[in-house]
Amino acid sequence: MLTETEYQRPIRSRYLDPVDLVWLATARRLGLHIRRNPAIFSATDGTGLLELGPRDTLDPDDSTAQMILHELCHWITNGEPTFRERDWGFQLDAELDWREHACLRLQAALADTEGLRAVLAPTSQFREYYDQVPADPFGPVPGWACEDRVVPLAREAWERAWGEPWGGPLRNVLRAHAAIRATLTPFLDDYASDLPDDALPSLWGR
């Protein structure tokens, strides 16, 4: 008989957050494969590789879902051919490209289809613009440059998003995400963090 110290429990599967699973599967359906890279926040190489920073480097309200959606919105906004360009054709060492704001409007519009705008909000400095996008995601946001170019491109991207190859996978993943939220909602009143001195409420309550 084996002693307790001699036994090694076989590991035959990996637990994964359900929301991570549906977004990782959606990325794969669209030809992207995700890898974690501690050296970067996010990057694509033009072959379908999408690298994201490790989970433990992200802010408390960041998620794999939000990061994948943001990258898909870049791809849709910049056009299908940019799948084969590094970082969707952005020059990362240049000043802010106005297409970023069109991408953020598209992100808000897609999230709105299932009432997920707050849950799927972007991270970093881009949140400032995103939070000012009105209820109509194509309405005016005063005080920002290039809005006369941003809004038409965002509308074009919105129309493009529902065609091939994105439309079906986006509908399915957004509905799945909303269904998971609906399942969790009855439990939120009794949620308490298992981290010491953590006063942050659950993002699912937003």
Write a structural description:
The protein is mainly alpha-helical and 206 residues long. The protein has one domain. 38% of the residues lie in helices and 5% in strands. It is built from six helices and three strands. The protein has helices at residues 18-29, 64-78, 99-112, 126-130, 147-161, 167-184; strands at 33-36, 42-44, 49-52. The chain has a three-stranded mixed beta sheet with strand order 1-3-2, with helices on one face. A hairpin with a 4-residue loop joins strand 2 (42-44) and strand 3 (49-52). Helix 2 (64-78) packs across helix 3 (99-112) and helix 2 (64-78) crosses helix 5 (147-161). The longest helix is centred in the C-terminal third of the chain and has 18 residues, at 167-184. The mean pLDDT is 93.
User: What's the helix-strand series?
Assistant: HEEEHHHHH
- Report helical residue fraction: 25-40%
Overall pLDDT score? 93
- Structural class assignment: mainly alpha
Query: What profile does the largest beta sheet have?
Result: 3 strands, mixed
Total number of β-strand segments? 3
Proportion in β-strands? 5-15%
Shape, per Cα inertia axes? globular
